[in-house]
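forwarding from the other thread:

> can someone predict this with histidyl-adenosine monophosphate?

sure thing
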Amino acid sequence: MQFRRATGTLDVLPEDQPYRQHIERAAMESARLFGFDRISTPTFESTALFVRGVGEGTDLIDKEMYSFETKGGDALTLRPEGTAPVMRAFLEHGMQSRSMPVRLYYVVPIYRHDRPGAGRYREHTQFGAECIGIADSSADAEVVALAWEFYRRCGLEGLELQLSNIGDEVCRPAYVTALRAYYASRLDLACATCRERYERNPIRLLDCKVPTCQPIIDGAPKPMDYLCDACKEHFDALQAHLRSLAIPFRLNPRLVRGLGYYTRTVFEVYPPIRGAQSAVGGGGRYDRLIEELGGKPTPAVGFGIGLERIILNLREQGMKVAQEHPTIYVAAVGEPARHHVLPLLQELRSADISAVGVIDQRGLKAQLRQADSLGVTYAAILGDDEIATGTVQLKYLKSGEQQNVARGGPLLDAILAPKVETTRSS
Ligand code: HAM
């Protein structure tokens, strides 16, 4: 029997790690640039937090949570999204008394029991950012600008930012009434999911992908046409901010999000080649969530970006991120020399030079073949003569050049000195 990874999960192999490190670095550096501090919350939380925060009637809560009961009888859920836990921590640690805005970011695993497919996993990693305490649209613009900076640092090109405003508690009820009234006479033409959404989460009707539902959606009322004055003003101001930052966007009146806590601004970012995988990020404003979780009313806005999808898109765009290799391989010929391998490795490592070597019976050729396959720059070869004279044969693998160098300072200098390529005349 051979064990395999669970459906919808990924192994990040050593050759994939450089991509991972590249984008995690991009996340940390862009967050730092915008003054966001990192927060880490537990992988699981009480199930009630997500039900309360995200809302019943959403696929995430109704169908996709990894929920379980502990031996002690607690109902817990593996984090299906990052915002509710951060708001829980914000309240639990009294961050409401800090000076606003509180800017937080995270890079965490997320668990969703979704149908796996290209770019859709049951465990993925999100870079998320939340700006808490500012109602003004400038905070929305800052959050979008942070996401934009992140994509730029990753090297992703050709992205499309889609933007909408889904109203607030003042204008949304009238919109939902209009949407329901429109659908009431068309329900028998709509798919089964739409009929369910009509009952439980009508705004999600706009997000149906079933072809026969498209003509119905095209004719349906759109949230942007029902905005109250305050929402409209917020939306206009956000667009002006984005223009002033030269961040291109497209208004998408059909844009709604899968999570229930959004008010006003919603946005999603799409790659140029869509395939089966979709958004490389999404977010919006959620001015009622903190209150919903028991805090005093506090506006907030944020985003989540799936790192695996970023890697897929970088690869699709042909971007290569080089893997780092050890600098030097220590090879030994003969028994006495083999005793010097570990001390020499230690010497090199204490000078911060990454060094590898294997002590076994294989011959020099096999050791150098391995050095080659590991992508190291140098081999240090130890034999009886080298041991007797306190030197090594330092071989530069790219050109095959070799020189006898004394161990200690001269060896370190030779390795650390910038390598000047000698061009050979033919
Ligand atoms: P979300 O749109 O559900 O938002 O997820 C954010 C991003 O995570 C998506 O745009 C996508 O890149 C990635 N993602 C989502 N599901 C998967 C999956 N199954 N496999 C791979 N990647 C996936 C949120 O979760 C909100 N908490 C974002 C937010 C923060 N809104 C305000 N603040």
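The pocket of histidyl-adenosine monophosphate is lined by residues 81-83, 112, 114, 119-121, 124, 126, 128, 130, 258-259, 279-284, 286, 302-306, 308-309 (CB under 6 Å). thats all i got for now
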